[in-house]
Design goal:
Helix content is 69%, strand content 5%. The protein has helices spanning 6-18, 31-41, 47-76, and strands spanning 21-22, 25-26. β1 and β2 (25-26) form a beta hairpin. α1 crosses α3. The N and C termini lie far apart (37 Å).
Amino acid sequence: MPDNGAFLWDWFWELRQAQPPGFSGPVPISNGELAFWCQLTGNIIRREEVATMRAMDARFCFEFEKECEVIKVREASA
């Protein structure tokens, strides 16, 4: 992450920590949760930053699900 975008990484993990897990893995961050987080923290997020955060969240959810599948296969073959 470039230095000038490091705050997005911090914001992403702040939002992720507040996100409850779903039954089949992480639940994507909703618009409502993002708006509430902005109100709660006083952070002002630009449209481009929202798009970046959405991409980060989508990739996080994808990679988490992929890792869960690897674990299931490993446990099934053990």
